[in-house]
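= Paired protein data =
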Amino acid sequence: MAELILASGSATRQSMLKQVGIPFTSVPARIDEEAIRGALEHEGATPRDVADTLAEYKARRVSEKHPGAMVIGCDQVLDHKGRVLAKPETRDNARNQLQSLSGGQHRLLSAVVIYEDLKPVWRVVGQVRLSMRPLSDSYIEDYLDRNWPDIADSVGGYKLEQEGARLFLRIDGDYFTVLGLPLLDLCGYLVNRGIIEG
């Protein structure tokens, strides 16, 4: 059986794979995400293409050093009116993101690309549409008091699995995709390949 490598240091993605009993090793990919994202946006790439391309870069980078392994690359972007929002680097960034998302809709796009021997063999981009409640400035400040800097590693400045769930009126799509990994699609592929039992 091929070694399974997750090209990510994300504790949330690792936890999801562990919870469903998928054996894997974590090897975070070292790429310049900001530079790649910036170049793609300059070229007019869609948010979906940005997520897919970043996931592929990560899978390929780790695959280069692990021949014979099946490498899972992942990335998630937030699409707000056609513009990609990145993880907030500062509390001010988080405040600005939450203010811009307040009372409207946005999409989370979670991409997975699997590489084997430097070739892509499977990919999927999961999509979730989220409707956020109108948030007052005072609530946003209180929310940040309670949750910053824990939410700094989450696009949009929220974690749905924590207090972030209170920010939303409606979510259309798969919960795992919100967390950054279209887990059901991935499990289906791994079952079909005979990597895990199903």
